[in-house]
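Progress narrative, Year 2. Work on Calcium/sodium:proton antiporter from Alteromonas marina advanced from sequence curation to structure prediction during this period.
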Amino acid sequence: MLLNIVIFLVGLIVLSWSADRFVYGASALAKNIGISPMMIGLTIVAMGSSAPEIVVSAIASANGNMNTAVGNALGSNITNIALVLGITALVKPLLVSSTTLKRELPALLIISLIAIGFMFDGELKSYEGIILLGLFIFVLAMMAWLSLQVDKEDPLVAETADEIPKGVSNTSALIWIGVGLVVLPLSAHFLVNSAVEIARYMGISDLVIGLTIIAFGTSLPELAASVAGVLKGEDDLALGNIIGSNIFNLLAVLGMPGLIAPGLLDPDVYNRDMYVMLGLTLLLFLFSFDLIGKRTISRTNGFILLACFIGYQFWLFG
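Result:
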């Protein structure tokens, strides 16, 4: 048991590090070949923040742990909103002013409803996985298009540009991309296997291990990035990372088990967890969205979200 915990923690650290290095290399290479910082931020960086979840989901599905992969997708979204955004708002209230985010928030809500529609019958089918992954490609293309239409005065433009690596050679960028592509799946393999062994030892289901330990672990980079972002005054970027990550979790991460290991879902998915995710997404929409002017996600909002996360953990293990 102790060895599996050590393997899990090391795997988690290496997974997060390799995802960060992959995004670093890909962003630097894209900048060097003339792609705009906004396009890099809305596509490469946004997708990179979900890279740990995507790879873990693929490995878990390939190993036959379909519900671990589904739990990772739903649990990561729940953790991103309730824990990551909750703590971030408690550290410093977030001012939502980007028009880009006000387009992404409704998209997240619509995608959440589509995902719930697919899970509602208690089964994730192969064609549903294909549809989700197809939508993932479509959303990436739409984000690339939106990056070309965005108002230059949008605060997200400056915030994104500040985060793109500068002065990195193409050789170094390619090396880091290669490191990420090799180390990401290896670390995910060890993380998933150790997590499954821990779950068996503790007598909990594959679903719960995905909803809790794996989801929490793969959401730690978002927590660190979001807190660092608001402390630097990059509120829109911090919130954008969470929204983008949640969109990709529902499309790419949830799409993996549908494509690789379609089958019956744990009943708790369609009786409990998907509704918790939808409820938190609606709360995020309520706290963030304002048709006119600006909206602040306050410390009170952060406390509500964090209380929801704690209550959900008690529900899982009660």
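The chain has one domain: 1-317. The chain has a mean pLDDT of 87.
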